[in-house]
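request received
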Amino acid sequence: MSELGAFVPDEVLEASFKKQGPKQYTLWVDLEYCVGCHACTMACKAENNTPVGVDYNRVIEIEVGEFKDPKEKPDIRTYFVAMPCMHCGKPACMAACPVGAITKRKEDGIVLINKDKCIGCRYCAWACPYGHPQFNAEAKVMEKCTLCVHRVTKGLKPACVDTCIAKTRFFGEIDDLTKLIREKRAERVSLGFIGAKSTTDPSVVYTK
Amino acid sequence: MGIGEKIVDTLINHHIEFEARLCSRFRTPKSGCSACADLCPAGVIQVSDKGAEIEVGCTDCGVCISACPNGAFKSSERSDGKIVNEIQRTIQRVKGSEGQRVKSFSISCEHGNAEAGLILPCLSRLTEAMLMEMVKSGASSVEILQPTCEWCPDRKAARHLNSVVQQALYIYEMLGIEKDSISVTSTKFNEEKNSQTSLGKTESESISRRAFLTGFRNKAVEVAAASIPLIDGKDNGNNKETFREVIQKTAENAKRMLLLDELKGVISATPELHSSLRKVEILSDDSPVAELEVNSRCTGCGVCAALCPTGSITQQNAGGKFALSYKPALCTNCKVCAAVCMTGAIEIKDKASLNILLEERDIKIFEADRKKCAVCKIDFIGGAGEICPLCVNIHEKQMSAIKTLFKKEV
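response:
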């Protein structure tokens, strides 16, 4: 059983990995400047018309550090971590789907749920290490962040990226984004992914 | 297939029809079944997530009909039911002239003995139901006259005959019929096909030239009209059903229904069999039916019931409970349920008792209380409190994933 804690055998995960193409579109989220306004969540909701209870982009607040002796400088701060779909290189959701409703596009690596195929069983939500796919109770299918594929294929950026008031979200091809990060944030080193390359190989890159 | 090819193919009277809903591969890509494609002598079957597609070049041999455990194929010209009637009529005719019991009923293929009681395009077209009918109609034994399959262009399908005979022998054992009731003997291989019976047509069924050409024209018009959306390039998305809608309607496995009818017929014709069916246990791999159990890992997702191609496993939501029921008579041992179950809650036993093939009652194999989750409002089973295991799991995963971004600090 893989470390995912869900029920996707390693050989099934490896098989889904073979479908990856040369280009991977993804997001760069800079946690340093995110103020937790949730405008990205709202813009996504408006753009994709999601029902109550379904949010493709969820922002989670986390306190990091310790509040030490009051006489000393407190070493504590809050981060707001936006969690869209990671559009993984080895999507656990795709491997877990019993009807093959999830595919990873060859041309740009975007992972999509085919709502005509989906039977709403939620296996993808179980398998995703980040718990991303959500159930739409009206349509009785699973939904997830599409990286605004309908906008991206027309040369636009995802709604969350355009809306960000702190300009702390970026969209692009993963290699280009990595270069951009080194340019813009040369003094800061931490480049993180929310999961390991050896598990699902998430594409969304975080910095802080 | 292109439009031109489609028209030509239909005009050459291609009689094999495929019902995707009964196909294991159509239900789930996790099924590796390729029985039809493996045995098709013409090599014209492509198996994919759409199920099976029969391409141009089908010779209507019908081996796929016998090969598919779920009965996803059928012939509009010479169905299993029609062949069973042919067998019955032939035996009745012989009985009439020879007295009560018919000593032996012979079967052969189009390259074999033209004098046999039943001639099939290929001996692998034979099904267990047909072998039952022979016994039911009063034949004491069955003789399969098999020419040297190695010399036949359709030899790819040859091995299937052995599986069918083996299955039929297990059933005979259960019914207390002697094993040597079926014998396979060699016969001369005829290069020239005896194709007069390939469509099961007798002389009185031949048609006039005018009727033939009119039928030809009408069929061409029908196929051309149906192909217009393809020329358009537009998919009539509004009219297309979703996969979910398609699988909600069960399709009947006519092949299994016929076998059950035959078995019930044999049993009712032989009163002493009612209480003395022999118990036959066979390895799961050789069995036409699976013996299965649901263990405590079941999460109540209902995917097994949704994807079971023959409707053998069903889900019930009455009375604040989630329940799964299993009707062995419909089970074809396709193993889709075990393949799709996320937690491996469905266990197919190593050995199956063939006798359950006759069990047509719904057996309850799992039941649990349902509660509504306080967070996602979806019904769930198991779990400790008011929140479903999935919501708990998602929350834990998110926190754990975020912490990997702050490894040193948190």
